[in-house]
Amino acid sequence: MERRSADALIEARELVARLRALAEMEAPTSLLANVLGELGLGDRYFPLETPLGWVYVAYSERGISAVRLSPSPEEFEERFRAEYGRRAWRLPEPPANLARKVERRLRENTGELRFDLRNLTEFERAVLLKALEIPRGEVRPYAWVAREIGHAKAVRAVGSALAHNPVPLLIPCHRVVQSSGKLGRYSLGSDENKRRMLLAEGVDADGLETLARGGVRYVGSDTTHIFCFPTCRHARRTTERHLVTFPSEAAAVAAGYRPCKVCRPALAG
């Protein structure tokens, strides 16, 4: 029994060695990428057109592992290897089923995708998965994310986790803004890209910042006496005639308003 186990281990090591050697040989790109990807010896990636231009999307057997803007495939591969310690192999075209899911996620915020977040801490994963819950066309403050995941005082840590999101666009860190209402920073290319993504999703970014400059953090309806974050779908249905604004949660509660059960503004400090 021990002899058979030793032989199997030797064979497995030889197989891995041969496959690693294959990585350095001339082989059809799609065959090489898929064989090595399926065996966990590297990720595969493909270009994708987005509102920010072309990005590269990498994935492993565990799920989507990276989304990056990059001037060239070579630069993307070099950066990927430096960050993750493994290679990324370019596919001539993406798998049709995966491409449909990714495009649907960008277009409608639907479609089931798995994500490879193995390099992140438990806290970082919690932050990103909470950001994943924010509906398309809406935003939430960093403090909301912190409170929702049970770390109300970790607002700075939330910002750091979002800044290191390996799969922006698909996990929408662009939908998390400053508590003041200002848009804040964005890790994918530039801060202006955050504005572009929000505009593409129907968020009135200029309107948000106008409210922020006026000290408005919440809006309510004088007919329902419910207050929301300004981008909440319920808030957007309130006509201007019935719209009231509040500088804080305390002011809304003092005026007899209760928090929306959908956007949950009471969880934001």
Blueprint (SSEs and pairs):
Blueprint: H1 2-23, H2 29-38, E1 43-50, E2 53-60, E3 63-68, H3 73-84, E4 88-90, H4 96-108, H5 122-131, E5 140-141, H6 142-148, H7 155-163, E6 176-177, H8 191-200, H9 205-213, E7 218-221, E8 226-228, H10 233-236, E9 243-246, H11 249-254, E10 258-259
Parallel strand pairs: 1-4, 5-6, 8-10
Antiparallel strand pairs: 1-2, 2-3, 7-8, 7-9
Helix pairs in contact: 6-7
In short:
The chain is an alpha/beta fold and 269 residues long. It has helices at residues 2-23, 29-38, 73-84, 96-108, 122-131, 142-148, 155-163, 191-200, 205-213, 233-236, 249-254, and strands spanning 43-50, 53-60, 63-68, 88-90, 140-141, 176-177, 218-221, 226-228, 243-246, 258-259. It has eleven helices and ten strands.
Account of the 3D structure:
With 269 residues, this protein is α/β, with parallel strands linked by helices. It has three domains: 26-108, Methylated DNA-protein cysteine methyltransferase domain (Double Stranded RNA Binding Domain); 124-214, Orthogonal Bundle (Arc Repressor Mutant, subunit A); 216-269, DNA Methylphosphotriester Repair Domain. The chain contains eleven helices and ten strands. The strands form three sheets. Strands 3-2-1-4 form a four-stranded mixed β-sheet, with helices on both faces. Strands 9-7-8-10 form a four-stranded mixed β-sheet. The chain has a two-stranded parallel ribbon with strand order 5-6. The radius of gyration is 23 Å and the shape is elongated. The N and C termini lie far apart (63 Å).
